Amino acid sequence: MRKQRGFAMRTLARVAVFAALIAVLGLPGSLNVFGNAVPITLQTMGVMLAGAVLGSWRAALAVVVLLVLVAAGLPLLAGGRGGLGVFTGPSAGYLVGWVAGAAVTGWLVERGGRDPGLVRLIVACLVGGVGVIYLFGIPVQALVTGISLRRAAWLSLVFLPGDVIKAVLASLVARGTQRAYPDAVPAVHQERLRSGGGR
């Protein structure tokens, strides 16, 4: 029982660290370009990193923790945004997409086993951290702003170059971390938890 409690505390600590990391990546602020109501931020890179290092459900939980704090009024989103109002604005779908995107990124990395490799990490970050987030974000942006789905999709193209760069950077950071600390590979961490040797 004590050992299980210890594992739970370590899991919560990892989740808290990545929730904080995503928040910290919002400190540089946000940028609105070409009249887009949804800002460009670095926080999606934190979402990708969470998925690549924590795995599916822990990464999703880290994002949920962050969003709960935001809903409670803490200004943890880029530009110092916080409060329930952000969940009714043009970015709302992207925020919800962070949860699904982190989970999908983590799930794809987990499928890579004990050594997911850089290519898998990049693909996972692109699919989960870009594709899935856009899948949630674009329709909600269109609905909230009253523009067509096609127009919202065209506006989202401004995010794509930066998001691809963030996916590559997140993958490089995750790969370097996993080489230095094998426990940062989701599959390895899960094996250690199952065997009673988790940290």
From TrEMBL:
The chain crosses the membrane at residues 12-31, 61-79, 91-109, 121-140, 152-174. InterPro entries: BioY. It is found in: Cell membrane. It is a multi-pass membrane protein. The keyword Membrane applies. Signal peptide: none annotated. Keywords: Cell membrane, Membrane, Transmembrane, Transmembrane helix, Transport. Belongs to the BioY family. PANTHER family: BIOTIN TRANSPORTER BIOY (PTHR34295), BIOTIN TRANSPORTER BIOY-RELATED (PTHR34295:SF4). This is Biotin transporter.
